[in-house]
Write a structure and sequence with these properties.
alpha/beta, four-stranded mixed beta sheet
Amino acid sequence: MKINWLRNKLLLSVLSGFLVLSLSGCFALVVGGMAETALVLADRRPISVVTIDRGLQLEIESTLTNRFSETAHLSVNVFNQKVLLTGEASTQSIKDQIQSTAAKVKNIRTLVNEMQVAPPSSVGSRLSDSSLFTLVKAKLLATSDVPLNSMKIVVEAGSVYLMGITTELESKAAATVTSKSSDSIKQVVKLFDIITEEEKQKLNKPSGNEKSQSSK
């Protein structure tokens, strides 16, 4: 009941934000901020992993930007110590170098390199991705079967990458909703860490378990 109330409140915030920001053209940026708030409110990752993810994000971005800013346009996203690289590299050699450089960073559990060997994407393409991200985020936020509080959405060149901690049913629901969000979506790539229903219950109620144990 509490989860549904939270979801409805977040959805109302997004819709309100749309009405205000449709006048300013900053919708995608604010929705991104709202998404981060949702993650903090109810994240299936342990706090220690959330901290590690943030450190990985900063370290990898800094390392790759310093070395490859002139030869690649890249984006780094991290969730549950899984690193996703997207964007464009000028050559296959540069793409390979980016991967090997990122792989040297400690605490990475999985590295997924989805970069394309191509010229840097245009401003128009990036704006289109931003709009698509906003649309997909709103659709998932309105879907009760999807744990948006423990997911990350990445949109690059019309492809949508879904990261997070979900059950098999949640994974399928998220992919289905995403694929139906817009005809402009080229592909939906699931990068979820799959858990069982029993694991889901434990992860969704950590504080309650702790209280019951402490009262014994």
